[in-house]
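re: that chain from earlier
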Amino acid sequence: MHLNTLRVLSSRYRHRLASTLSALAIGVALSGCASQNPPTSSTYSNADLNEQLVMATAWMQSAGEYQALSFQAFNVARFRLDQAIDARAAGDRPLAVIVDCDEAVIDNTPFQAWLIGRDEQYSSANWSAWVEDAQARALPGAKAFLDYAHSRGVEVFYVTNRKESGLAATMKNLKQLDFPWVDEQHMMLRTDASDKQPRREAVMATHDVALLVGDNLADFDSRYDADDVATRSAQVIQDRAQFGERYIVLPNPTYGGWEAALYEGDFSLSPQEKDQRRRAALRAWSGPEQTAP
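^ sequence. v structure.
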């Protein structure tokens, strides 16, 4: 090949290579800018927020530690129930246990798992569809404890914030699990208000309540319905002697009054605002000390 021809080809190659490298540099720069800019409220969706459910839901569905905590809660409940039975005297009112349903004796984590990857949040419509499906399973240790209470003549009242419209489906679900005391007298679902105190007081008016079992602090006392973290924490400290004594708490890191407190009760916040509130609540390590080069 002629020398001049080689020079021309070499020049064209260098020009193409320079163009390619320039395009790559621009692409990397744009990519860097995109990764540094946080998503806007218009791009951060419920699907993004729901990704935060992955670890908590996986833990509840897979971790032996979660099983152990559930068994532990019901072991303590049985021990305390025995103490209450032994302390009874002739003429005492009937003994009862008040339990919440969701994440207290039955497991709804498949509903949480269904939300993951979907651009929608919890709603009355999608929750009602799950309730009607009647597919919740018993928590580890729950049935054994409820059966034991029944065997000792202790009544169980299911005080839940499932709506009255879901009564038939909820009873169907609990009967499928062969839970005791599943009848309209012992099923106390939400009517007008979410505050459980009137329903608890109705049971306490006719029965001696030995234990309350729940995953949410408001399952024990309406003072925990406060929409701020500090008030709830202060109330826990005040009631600390009750936990493991009369209040039996089941772990639930997926939802609850603790989440509402992060938003100050405002669930109308955008997905990005909810994410920001969650992150603002974190206490983070400052990181390792940086030494000068």
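The domain at 46-268 is CATH 3.40.50.1000 (Rossmann fold).
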